[in-house]
Known about the structure:
The chain is about 25% helix and about 25% strand. It has about 575 residues and is α/β, with parallel strands linked by helices.
Amino acid sequence: VVDTEAMFKQGFLAEVYNERPVKPVYTRFPPEPNGFLHIGHSKAIAINFGFARYHGGECYLRFDDTNPEAEEEVYFESIKEMVEWLGFKPYKITYSSDNFDKLYELAEKLIGLGKAYVCHCGDEEIKLQRGGEKGTSPRFRCEHADQSVEVNLKKFRDMRDGVYKPREAFLRMKMDITSGNTMMWDLAAYRVLDKPHHRTGDKWKIYPTYDFTHCLCDSFEGITHSLCTTEFFLSRTSYEWLNQQLVEFQPMQREYGRLSISGSVLSKRKLKELVEKKFVRGWDDPRLHTLIGVRRRGVPPGAILEFVNELGVTTSTSIIQLSRFEQTIRRYLERTVPRLMLVLDPIPVVIEDADDFEGTELEVPFSPKDEAMGKHKIKFSKTVYIDRSDFREVDSKDYFRLAPGKSVGLLNAPFPITATSFTKDEATGLVTEVRATFDRTNKKPKTFIQWVPAESAGSRKCEVRLYNPLFKSENPASAEGGYLNDINPESEIIFPNAMVESGIEEVKRRAPWPEAAGEDKIGKGGPESVRFQAMRVAYFALDSDSTDDKLVFNRIVSLKEDVGK
Ligand code: ATP
Ligand code: MG
Ligand code: MG
């Protein structure tokens, strides 16, 4: 059982609550719908939804949709789905754009208070006003700051009415340019943008900025604790400043450290390039750390929550090695998924004296550790398939698997087998068949290997995709020749002719594994929730490319760190 609440009991988030120990608590997760969520966002989701849940409150899912240039419908849907997949239910789904009218009125109110002015300066002029190239010359305000309230109101309405083209005018807050905090240097509140909005259509030609919108929307929704990442630390001052000018209810903003994974890229621009240049299978490629990619790979939502919890929450950025993420997933799967036998590169072994066991049903537990997972049946057949790597044409003393004259155990089978002979394809040099006999002497073999019975006994052919890190280096963004030059040629290794035992049918029927995951609660585990440990091979999940006729499996993680091809 995962304690996904540890992070609220002590440390940074406990202190945040103690600063404002109110009930009920209201929080929000405020993504900009301009891309797919990535693993870093799972931290924001776990924190915001978890904090509210822990304190008996509620969390909004608020789409911060104030920039129509970058937003698309598919992102809204995907973000909603990912929040649910992680096991959270938004109190309400809201949109910053729902408040465009209200925000506009408050902008006029701010002008009326003499705290905002319409400015016509360009980027260069603004830079000079803010202390020049090095930021060392004296700061000053432009002449627009001296306009009367009436002039500002008239110009702002002109902005609204389409009199100005983009960049010809913008509304600026009159803050405190003497402050040491750059976020108090008369920030933009509204800009002219000639773009239709996906919700408000072409009603608006001006759109509010993040700095104007976020704090006010937090106040409208009664957000008690507004939790965001540390790059907003300086913005806290402007956040409080604006709310104090305009609204009654004062939310409290606090900042935590971002989560990022080394050896991966998360930036939208880079992901887009990887997808468009077909280095990966799509935005949900199992090697990407988009949440849809991580999900497709088969990582259970519970393992992600456990990961975020283990890392804990502080104000410093966590750059976590991929191997640490995988270690958490591995530990989680170890105790939550059933075991099956799968052979990546099968070669047939004919057990010549096994007639008495042909068709016998062997009863096999899904887990040696957890009886509650139950048992399933494997039908034995005279011809079994083992992995090519478990047979050697020439035996040696330090080798303990199958070779001519040598015995090896077959997991769950009646007896070990001893190889007697083998045949080879002359052209390829590959072994095509091994002949063997049962070793009925009751000597315990040194090694047991996985195997599957013949297809006639219920085994199924499948395609297996082994995933390794997408990049060769820990820091692909600064790799020589760029991250596209750093792609690991072995990031995806395909075994097209693998075989899995018939137990897969029940594992499919009973998915999602683990049964207590978020995907179970929302009642729609996808193919990726069919997870199992292939004994001696790796952890796998069913891929979305699978059909009734063709099974495709993704390696979620290897069985041990740094093991596997
Ligand atoms: P990105 O540019 O990577 O998409 P963002 O900051 O633009 O990130 P938003 O979509 O605006 O992301 O983010 C929604 C929420 O998720 C914000 O509160 C943001 O601070 C938080 N968030 C984004 N990235 C991370 C991260 N790597 N770790 C923790 N929280 C994050
Ligand atoms: Mg953003
Ligand atoms: Mg974003």
